[in-house]
Amino acid sequence: IYLSEHAWRDLEDNLRNQDKDEQRRAKEERKNGDGTAAQPSLLDLQSSRPGSNLLVPPMVPGGPYGDEQRSFYSEDARSFYSEDEYYQEDHYSGGYNDTESAYGSEVFAPSGSTFRELEMRKMLNGDSKGDGVEEEPEIPRKTTRGRKQWVALTWFLTWWIPGPFLRWCGGMKRPDVRMAWREKVALCFVILALSGVVIFFIAVFGKLICPYQNVFSWNELQAHDKKDYAYTAIRGEVFDLTNLVPGHWPNEVISTSALFAYAGKDSTVLFPIQVSALCDGTTGSVDDAVTLDTHVNLTDPNAAYHDFRYFTSDYRPDWYWNQMVKMRKLYRIGFMGYDPKDLQNQAKTNMASSGISNPSWAILNNDIYDLSAYLAGGLIPRVPTGQQVPANLNMNFMDSRIVDLFKTFPYQDITKSFEALNLDSILKERQLVCLRNLFFIGKTDNRNSTVCQFSTYLLLIISVMLCAVILFKFLAALQLGGRREPEEYDKFIICQVPCYTESEESLRKTIDSLSVLRYDDKRKLLFLIADGMLIGSGNDRPTPRIVLDILGVDPNVDPEPLSFESLGDGMAQHNMAKVYSGLYECSGHVVPYIVVVKVGKPTERQKPGNRGKRDSQMILMRFLNKVHFNSEMTPMELEIFHQIKNVIGVNPSFYEFVLMVDADTEIMPDSLNRMVSCFVHDAKIIGLCGETMISNEKDTWVTMIQVYEYYISHHLAKAFESLFGSVTCLPGCFCMYRIRSATKNQPLLISNQMIQDYSENIVETLHMKNLLHLGEDRYLTTLILKHFPNYKTKFTPDAACKTNAPDRWPVLLSQRRRWINSTVHNLLELMFLPQLCGFCCFSMRFVVILDLLGTLVMPAIVVYLGFLIYSIAVSPTAIPFWSVITLAGVYGLQALIFIIRRKWEHVGWMIVYLLAIPVFSFAIPLYSFWHFDDFSWGNTRVVVGEKGKKLHLASDEGKFDPKSIPRKKWTDYEQELWEVGSHESHDSRGTAHTGYTHESYRSHRSLAPAGAGPGSTAGSIYNDAASYYSGNGGNSGRSRSRSPAPMAAYDNQSIRQQSFTNVPIVSDPRMSRPYSDMMSQRGSVFMNRTPSEIDLAYANMPPGMGGGSRAGSMMPPGGSVMDAYYASGPGSSASGDGAILPTDEEILQEIRRILSTSDLMSITKKQVRDELSAFFGVDMSSRREFVNSCIEQVLQGKL
């Protein structure tokens, strides 16, 4: 049933009103009741779990007393609640056994009994929203100034798209979806504008401020004097003589060599002109007898072949015009050009040789005209032989006012003066024709002007900077010399592996590769997090079951799910997980492991427990943060602490580095030690990554086009960023972080700032969703650079791993969409970081801006490259010099990298990559930009049951209260375990449903030798001298209820005094080989402990080794150590009338223990007092008021 928000709110309001009425009636009934209700059943104290103190879920009903009828109307039962509170009777079903998990089953979620005491505490604290209880108002989140500006820009760019259109036609019902779509469109507009700016700057800007000119200076013309590229000039126009000569006619009259003699020269004298055919003068016609010759004969002997003027025997008035039209169309390549600054000197130099000492040059509309011959008396009438020159012949065909301009303003621009002349438009047009045909000698050459020089040098500077970046990247990658073998280190390492829906083959490959790393097995810990009870596509079991099967965990081992704070919306922040631990054996290596399986709350049905990779990372980061600061921990975190410290035998504070690996990655055997070597040699390194290679490179064409990109992105991009100590992306598939500083013990990866920023739950904007939902690995690096600018993130090519690249187009498209979109938003974050290495253009910020711009304009650059190739193919002479040099530098230097490294196979991969440029740099980016508002992981990870559906699940109802998850410091928790040791004698009444019996409680306890109490001193060291894993088994999994703990030595003296050689070793069916065998092979594990932390691990052996109710206790012959321990406990106090009453602090401590281990739905205050009397051996009736007061304040959270 689908309800609108309005209808849902109406129903909710009605239900709330009904609840209030029922509460009032129930309160009245309680006041008027006669108190004759049946007395509630006594709580079975023998089956309680001392010491958990609200940190472990209560026992599920189902034991001997689990089904007894309970009444809530006795005086003691009612005394738990205030007058204004309403107590509802609730019956919870029993637990379950998750031995055969299947996707979609409800058994993925833990039993509902886990939340009974939490819900009860919430009611007792007044959170039930009864009468008179007001909900604390939520403080609105302040919108930043940048966000306001971006929203304003978004609406400015998308105001023309109506909201109803998006709802009706786009199917976007929710306002956040519509806003994300608008932001996506706005981003696409911004990208389009940036692409336009880049293309404009590259292809248009230079031509706009300095238009291209096909002009040649005298030096350039003279340089073209070879037959292969011969040019010649005729009246200011330059022609291609190389192409013209083959078509010249007749060849038998003028030889080819004679024609090429004019290459690189001015050939104007070869073409005499008929003035009357080229100029209409001032009146509309010019007499045929008018010729334009100077008093010196400039006629070349070969000019006779082109002389068809009026006075010759072969008069062809239009021959010159027709020939020039033909040559202009076929052979003209430009014009002669003259720099305006050098015009005067150039004119004097050229014309002095012609006998004209005062040439008259002027510029008109950027065209240069020479009236020197006209003014120097070159107007001579010539008629055919035998004819007379006409009388009154007007030789002046140019207007005198125009001629005066040339005389008045020689060598200057007369354009404005010419336009100012009072001339008839027809006359002005005639005069311009005469100037163009008779006196034109070239155009102004502005290539050396200030404007053109600015554009040229600006483009040159940018090209040089880009080439410099490419060169520096090349030099950074050019690391000659062989790899040196580092020494073997002994730092404690956590290998974190988040698992989602990977196949069994991938998971096994990853786990095995980590296990066989050439590093001390005792000093590395496999920390696997299964992100929800999910079945991946192609799998037949849930991912957690696959992981546990690989590690050899018995399917019957079923630890109880424990609460922890997760990432999510609303109540989804409350998550639950199961914790496993043990030793994994592979190829002679025995490695400890921790497996955290997120199973979710009982109410979760869709992907129970799944909260994403970032949440999986936060489990370890939060845990280490709380270990470092000794902060309060959730039940799951306390269990992890217990498993690492008491089962594996290493204090969690010993770990210095975290190796983050994806579940489909294979690490090379020497990589870990090489990475540790980098950290050791440079204490300023906070993050490090190695090279990621493709393991399935030849599977399909999709994998083939990625090989070269993977190689060059590491050895060029990351190697260059590593020079600055600021690698902007440490890939989550293979990277390593320093947990705390080497000298000052300053928290780094686990600092409060990192935890706070990386655990951001309010992810509402498009920007934050791309950061935290798609690119969490890259964002983690961004936060590292933000909070620790004085530290370095580096790349080392010596460490390597192999991973499976997407082998299908849809998967590649989905992966690159996530990568590109997260890259864009992370680079935006990096741009505004206050402290980045370098200054101005020589800084990491400049490189980040270049990377961001390059990412956004990739499609535009591909379009420009296509245009460039087309232009070169069509016109080989018009080659953009600097563009070609830049491209040659990019790919030429890349080729040198793998050639020098002798990676010859990358020659072929480079060719494949170049052919795939349209795919990588055009198609995929365009797809990614248009899917900025898609925050899913697409086809990269497919879960069985989804069937491609897009599910928009509303967040869990209600507001999450962090206080709903109990928390306690490990030191306090462990101290309490010591203080309640006397209750070990209680018989276990746990059932198969509880998953946490009296025996399982002992797996929490640490037993000290006789007399070792909180004030005693015992030391131990972590070395290979002497340490013991109690119990049997090598490749076995341990749960909370059956976790064998390592036996730690106290000191050398205690080891000598106590011999365990006579202790029998009994095989546990869950274990595959004895620990004793393992100890003989792998050495021992010690650690420093305070007196309260000393554990002898007697209580965790299988039944039969210790006997009695202490199931699993292992002790020296005679059991003197355990007997002495129990004899020294507080429970040994004698009872009697003369017994001394306990102190208030002792009473309060025991009340806390009783309430934390009891079912709050059934226990009464009287039962608590009886338990106190039994514990202290005295009658507590005299302290009744004090006890009742303490109970109420503990339940209300005041104590």
Strand runs, count: 27
Fraction in beta strands: 5-15%
Largest sheet: 11 strands, mixed
| Shape designation | elongated
Rg value: 45 Å
Q: So how many helices?
A: 40
Structural class: alpha/beta
Low-confidence stretches: 34-135, 351-355, 946-955, 982-1138
Note the gap between the termini: 45 Å
Mean pLDDT across all amino acids: 75
Q: Return the domain count.
A: 5
The helix content, as a percent range, equals 40-55%
Biased composition (Basic and acidic residues): 14-33
Pfam families: Chitin_synth_2, Cyt-b5, DEK_C
GO molecular function: chitin synthase activity
Domain DEK-C: 1141-1196
Write structural notes for this entry:
The structure is a single chain. The protein is α/β, with parallel strands linked by helices and 1199 residues long. The chain has 5 domains: 34-136 and 1150-1195, no CATH class; 196-210 and 464-477 and 692-730 and 741-945, no CATH class; 215-448, Cytochrome b5-like heme/steroid binding domain (Flavocytochrome B2, Chain A, domain 1); 491-667, no CATH class; 991-1122, no CATH class. The strands form 6 sheets. Strands 11, 12, 13, 14, 15, 17, 18, 19, 20, 21 and 26 form an 11-stranded mixed β-sheet that branches. Strands 1, 2, 3, 5, 6, 7, 9 and 10 form an 8-stranded mixed β-sheet that branches. Strand 13 (562-565) and strand 14 form a beta hairpin. The radius of gyration is 45 Å and the shape is elongated. The two termini are 45 Å apart. 40% of the residues are buried. The model is unreliable at 34-135, 351-355, 946-955 and 982-1138 (pLDDT under 50). InterPro entries: Chitin_synth (IPR004835), Cyt_B5-like_heme/steroid-bd (IPR001199), Cyt_B5-like_heme/steroid_sf (IPR036400), DEK_C (IPR014876), Nucleotide-diphossugar_trans (IPR029044). It is a multi-pass membrane protein. It is found in: Cell membrane.
